[in-house]
Amino acid sequence: MAVTTATGPAPAAGVWGSIWQGITRSTSGFIGLCLVLSVLLFSFVGPLLIDNHNPTDVSRIWGPMSSEHWLGTNHEGKDTLTQLILGGREPIMVGLMAALITVAIAVTLGAIAGYVRGRVDHFLLQLTDITMTIPFIVLMLVIASFYRTSSPMVVSFIIGLVTWPYLMRSIRAQVLTLKEREFIEAARLQDLGTTRILCVEVLPNMAGYIFINFIIAITNAIYAVVGMYLLGLLPSTADNWGLMIQQAWDNNAFLLPQAAPFLVAPMVMIMLFQIGLVTMTRSLEQALNPRLRDR
Amino acid sequence: MATEIAASPPPDTGGSGPAAPRKNNPLLNRIWRNYVFVKVRKAFVVVFVVANVTFFLGRAMPGDPIDVMAGRLTQGGMSMNEARAIAMNSLAYDPEASLLRQWWEFLVGLATLDLGNTINRPAFSVTEAIGAYLPWTLFSIGAGTLIAIVLGLALGMVMAYRRNQFLDHVLSVVASVLGAVPNYLIAMLLVVVGGMYLGWFNPIELRGTLSPGVQPGFTLTFIGDAFYHAALPIFTYVLAIIGTWMLVMKASTTEVLGEDYVTVARARGLRDSRIATAYVGRNAVLPLVAQIAISFGTLVGGAIFVEQVLVYKGVGGLLLDAVNYRDYPLLQGLLIIITSCVVIANLAADLLYSRLDPRIRK
Known about the structure:
The complex is a heterodimer of chains A (295) and B (362).
Chain A: H1 9-25, H2 27-44, H3 46-49, H4 80-86, H5 89-116, H6 118-133, H7 136-146, H8 152-162, H9 165-179, H10 182-189, H11 194-202, H12 207-230, H13 241-250, H14 260-288, H15 290-293
Chain B: H1 2-7, H2 26-33, H3 35-60, H4 65-75, H5 80-90, H6 99-111, H7 126-161, H8 166-180, H9 183-197, H10 220-257, H11 260-267, H12 272-285, H13 289-310, H14 315-324, H15 328-356
């Protein structure tokens, strides 16, 4: 990884460069990136290109696939394709937000615990142990029903609040090893202050690692949001892939052949996005971790 | 919480040199610092804290059991006062009791291992309710995990031996895809593809844990029926977790294959099968023992989705009910039991690990 100097931007640029290189170097990584980008285009640019008006129409419940309705219509007679295009924004945004929160908490606590040590470290580790032990889905379930009428923001906050422990532990471990290196020692001798040393010297060295974990956190968060929709724990308002799956499943769509597009289409979108993200991180991991690369 | 942590001496941070006898009894001191004891003590602290967090988390939710039931009754056209009166009579919950009093009763119950009765079905104790559902979840998850780990470790080893060959590439893609797809979507795909399009089974008939009329007991009918109904969940868990294990085992095996002792073993002319089992396999699996236990924790959570999708009557549905009806004792009981399962699994892994690899006991 990039050699650290006291100036901030130089190592950061190196990290982004090697991230880009890592993704494009391997075929599977590149395919993953393409998958992710196309799902993002579909759900963020798509809504700008189509007619967002999607009325219920009782005369065409579970309509077949046709030139007018490419993916047929659903149990309310709404056009499935329109719903599919409009339904990606929310789960993806929630995933992104939740991942940001997870990473922020994990990095902050991990850096503090690893760098400061002592009582603080001990307390944070115990807290991590406890949060890690409660299955996070269970915890999320309880908190989610606590805020029944929750907005996407609240949902992402809840997910972020319960999924940080694993990352925190590995960040802490990395800080522990980085701390012993000469340049950190030098910075400490110059009395630069803990916050500065952590932000300028320590964290940029882990940027690639943090980025990978950010992507993994997105997949976990999307898994969780869609799962919560499936359990009916989130308000059924906007168009949303998770909600589509839940509606399809609750209406026993798997028993009706003509309902297949409505059930399968959102599932496929979510799977494509998740598979894309995961393959992307796999090759990134190999590119950024020289130990894996050489074998 | 803070006081408890402050009270316990840091067990591993000051691990350099022999345990410095502090003030009193050196024997007690040694027991206090004993590896096994430290682990067990920490496990207890975790369960205790989780239990208390659950208690307050539950009470912090808006609406109590009476509200929930009254709300349902008023939907049937009853007046609010009437509905509340009926709810008060049929539920074992006193909304007037102070939080402190409830907490005290909860702590006493915890100390005497009495989890109380459920609120919504006052005749049933929490232990009975959980006892009726938990075995099914443990059974399906246990079988799924076992199959997935055994298969995953074997396939991972094959992949490492055939590194960069066609088989490795194919299996890597399969493992990545399986690892990326959420378990509940795998369950749905199984039902849609296997049940509807290929017609291999009837998903409706497979619902539940047992066919009507089948009595639990040590009979062939019972065991066969239990496996029949658990087949879909088990298969889902296998598909959902095998990918991770294949990749982890591949990485671990690859690492071991590069070690000097493997080269030496080869140079000594040992048979390949012996190298693969006694040298490579053993050392590749060792670092994964802890992960097996940790994966157990996430699995229990994931089971909630899978059980809901496949209508398998395990602990997942019970938990959802407990949350929805604000059945505090049941919710607490479930969380304590689930957490204890995870803690015990972790503890077992730690202890097993320390036996397998004495270096970590320090």
